[in-house]
Amino acid sequence: MNDTTYALEARDVTKRFGRIQALHGISLKLKPGEMLGILGDNGAGKSTLMKILSGYHAPTTGGLFVNGQPVSFTSVDHARMYGIECVYQDLALVNTLSVYHNMFLNRELRHGCTPFLDHKAMRKRAEAALEDIGVTVPSVDEEVGMLSGGQRQAIAIARAVSSNARVLLLDEPLAAMGAREASMIIALIERLKARGDVSMIMIAHNYAQTLEVADHVMMVQRGTCTYAGRSADTSVLELLDVVKREYRAAAQ
């Protein structure tokens, strides 16, 4: 794979909802094993972009490319066929089900062609998947609702990775977390980066946390990319200056 082949690329993507234009020509490139942090206020267009990348919405204009090949996703399941998995902020976990049942939600293992669930196989595979990326829970038999927010987030990420994700889209994985739990998720993201087989895009509000974990960052404001650069060449102050300049321009 050469340097011009990207795990995921968006070119001049726009999105309209009736009279409202949510995205104005957004482009991004994600190399295999890289992580991109997307920053911006609520309503800036970050979630709309994520939904396009995950197949939930189709772009109005512009194109998506996976490993250099053009794609036109028709659904979230279609995007999953290309190895793109999204972990949404609500995690889509069922609190009253066990960890291992949540790991196999809507893709349960069964005994042959029978309707009976293979609990033993699901339990064993769930334990292996969590261990593979260094996630610790009291037991895979524990109800998810009894776990901490950080543990639930880790389970949602582990479920996506165990589904053979090649591009992982993380929607605010650090939101509403204390320092200890945020550190746990950052450590998990760092371990996934070290593996080199999963590319990631993370939507976030916290500039410092994003710069700590992402290789590149981009700022989205009013549906437009107002900044893109390497995290190593960027600072929190510089990002704040970008936001201030855009606010001043909008007020004029």
Structural write-up:
By secondary structure, the chain is α/β, with parallel strands linked by helices. 35% of the residues lie in helices and 25% in strands. The chain is built from 8 helices and 10 strands. It has helices at 46-53, 76-81, 99-103, 119-132, 149-162, 179-195, 207-213, 236-251; strands spanning 8-17, 20-30, 35-39, 61-66, 69-71, 84-87, 167-171, 199-204, 216-221, 224-230. Strands 6-7-8-3-9-10 form a 6-stranded mixed beta sheet, with helices on both faces. A 4-stranded antiparallel beta sheet has the order 2-1-4-5, covered by helices on one side. A hairpin with a 2-residue loop joins β4 and β5 (69-71). α5 packs parallel to α6 (179-195). It is globular and about 65 Å long. The model has no long low-confidence stretch (mean pLDDT 92).
Keywords:
globular, six-stranded mixed beta sheet, 10 strands, 252 residues, alpha/beta
Q: Helix- and strand-based class?
A: alpha/beta
Rg calculated over all Cα atoms? 19 Å
Average pLDDT level: 92
Q: Largest sheet, if any?
A: 6 strands, mixed
N-to-C series of helices and strands: EEEHEEHEHHHEHEHEEH
Cα separation of the termini:
47 Å
Low-confidence stretches: none
Q: Helix segment count?
A: 8
Any idea what the shape is?
globular
Strand content: 25-35%
The order of strands across the largest sheet is: 6-7-8-3-9-10
Produce the secondary structure layout:
Layout lengths: L7 E10 L2 E11 L4 E5 L6 H8 L7 E6 L2 E3 L4 H6 L2 E4 L11 H5 L15 H14 L16 H14 L4 E5 L7 H17 L3 E6 L2 H7 L2 E6 L2 E7 L5 H16 L1
Parallel strand pairs: 3-8, 3-9, 6-7, 7-8
Antiparallel strand pairs: 1-2, 1-4, 4-5, 9-10
